[in-house]
Amino acid sequence: MIDVTSKVRLSNVLLIVVMAIVSHTAFAGSTEMEVVKSSLKTIIKVEPDSVKLTPVDGLYEIAYGSKIVYMTKDGNFLIEGDVFDVKKGVNITESVRSVGRQKAINGIDPEHVISFAPKGNKAKHVITAFTDIDCGYCRKLHQEIKKYNDLGIEMRYVAFPRSGPQTKSYFKAVAVWCAKDRNKAMTFAKGGAKLDQLKALAQVDNAKACEDAVMKHLDAAKEIGITGTPTLFMENGQIIPGYVPAERLIKMLEG
Q1: Which of 77, 89, 120, 135 is buried most, with the most CB atoms less than 10 Å from its CB?
Q2: What pairs with residue 162 in β-bridges?
Q3: Do 9 and 27 lie in a common domain?
Q4: Is the same domain home to 116 and 98?
Q5: 130-170 pLDDT, tens digit each
């Protein structure tokens, strides 16, 4: 998993001047793509997933999963921020970012997802929800799980204990993922069950496998850039931050 933010040390400002380690003379005769890649290597030691020219003249898009940055063709400026096509009214960066997010989500083992699906598994829409056992709005969302299902929405839970590994919320998630009936355990947990009560439900012999699953979910959340819960993802990778009532969510999905 790549945490580009820590490696590149990007600030939240839109433009960062990159101190050129390699001089312009070193790039003599090189193509723009080679110049960009060479300059990129001086500050990021990880190979990007892709480097390509954007619709903006002289601006290159560099993708690291769902992390997107830009560099000028001379390799002197690195830009963090979203690029909008004003005429089309499209956020170009978000379109690329969604693809990276979806790739990360698709990489999550289906066996490690707790799914609440409509009867007969006839789901019209599938939502991937990063959830925290102790999150108030996550519990509020789960209270409406039947409403989501009745509207044809399948909710696939992925663990994201915000407090991090080796904390109470983390061990609650591990206990739920270790339960024989994980759906029942999730509902019990979201109802306010204590850690020792959840541990009593754990019936999986290999608890390490449950911890590994939760840790992989945390890694995926880090790669995508999730910081809060619940965080919902549509099938196209579009993000929906926070709790959304069932009636409103179905309108968003079908709108």
Answers
A1: 135
A2: none
A3: yes
A4: no
A5: 999 999 999 999 999 999 999 999 999 999 999 999 999 99
Q: Do 204 and 250 sit in the same domain of this protein?
A: yes
CATH number for the domain harbouring residue 216:
3.40.30.10
Please answer whether residues 196 and 171 qualify as being in contact, where contact means their C-beta atoms are separated by less than 8 angstroms.
no
Length of the chain: 255
Q: What is the pTM of this model?
A: 0.76
Looking at the structure of the chain, the number of domains it has is 2
List the domain range (segments joined by +) for residue 148. Answer: 111-254
φ, ψ of residue 29 to 5 degrees: the values are 85, -5
Q: Which of 80, 105, 130 is the last residue of a domain?
A: 105
Q: Are residues 118 and 173 in the same domain?
A: yes
146 contacts: CB under 8 Å, gap ≥ 6? none
Contact 169, 160 (CB under 8 A): no
> What radius of gyration do the chain's Cα atoms show?
21
Helical spans, DSSP H, in 74-161: 92-106, 136-143, 145-150
Phi, psi of 232, rounded to the nearest 5 degrees: -105, 145
Q: What pLDDT is attached to residue 97?
A: 87
